[in-house]
Design a protein that fits this description.
The chain is of the alpha/beta class. It has one domain: P-loop containing nucleotide triphosphate hydrolases (Rossmann fold). Helices cover about 35% and strands about 30% of the residues. The strands form 3 sheets. The chain has a 6-stranded mixed β-sheet with strand order 6-9-10-3-11-12, sandwiched between helices. A hairpin with a 2-residue loop joins strand 4 and strand 5.
């Protein structure tokens, strides 16, 4: 059982307070949807969880499986099992998706003393694994030989993120607006991929503006963030109410 716990988290960006006392727990086997309007602090929270240096934690605590991660670098957080799916995935010319994923996979299992361990895969074994994952996700095999996100459509970039999720098998996946820029067909494909990968050993924090992705990925918990705070929490019905009444319903109570 894995658990992320955030306690009274306050975060500044360039001297301005963005997060104003976040409290949240995400356990393995749970899908948490974090919703809220633009500028509410959702993406800031995602970047803070992975250790982006731009964001300064002024108070509060973040632990993952009992380990205080605030002093850890992003790569060490990844080795603990954290994964961030970006809203705008970067393009890397000259690096194939397969080589990128193999490097990322093997670095997760490389020990501090340099011992690669049994989990590190040869290029042959890794290509075999990639083919199996592509088949499960109904992705074309040629996908893995293309340069990372170069010339990819918005939907293909998000599918790349899902393939990374399948290969790296994190304990906690933070998916920052995975539905951003996707048409209906791409949204269905990406959502189906997430549903296939999700299991009892993984927790998911799904950050989104809209209810539409929650029509395909059913959350166990829904949280609403506004002005740097979580102002409401509930089940799937909370997302349905937001779809019906909008975010003003939270603040106005009507």
């Amino acid at each position: 059982m894995s658990e992320l716990e955030i306690k009274e988290l306050h975060v500044n960006v360039e001297g301005k307070e963005i997060l104003k006392g976040i409290n949240l727990k995400v356990k393995s086997g749970e899908i948490h949807a974090l919703m809220g309007p633009n500028g509410s602090g959702k993406s800031t929270l995602a970047h803070v969880l992975m250790g982006h240096p731009k964001y300064k934690v002024t108070s509060g605590k973040i632990t993952f499986n009992g380990t205080d991660i605030l002093a850890l670098s992003p790569d060490k957080r990844a080795k603990l099992g954290l994964f961030l799916g970006f809203q705008y995935p970067a393009e890397i010319s000259g690096v194939s998706l397969t080589n990128f994923l193999r490097t990322a996979h093997n670095s997760l299992y490389k020990k501090e003393d340099g011992d690669v361990g049994q989990a590190v895969l040869s290029i042959f074994d890794f290509k075999k694994q990639i083919k199996e994952e592509l088949k499960k996700l109904n992705f074309d095999e040629i996908f893995a030989d293309r340069y990372l996100n170069e010339g990819f459509s918005g939907g293909e970039k998000k599918r790349t993120e899902i393939l990374q999720l399948a290969v790296l098998k994190p304990k906690l996946a933070i998916l920052d607006e995975t539905d951003s820029g996707l048409d209906i067909d791409a949204l269905k494909i990406v959502s189906e991929g997430i549903n296939k990968i999700f299991n009892e050993e993984m927790g998911i924090l799904l950050i989104t503006h809209y209810n539409r992705i929650l029509n395909y990925i059913k959350p166990h918990f829904v949280h609403v963030m506004m002005d740097g705070k979580i102002v409401a929490s509930g089940g799937e019905e909370l997302a349905d109410k937001l779809e019906e009444k909008g975010y003003n319903w939270i603040t106005n109570g009507v």
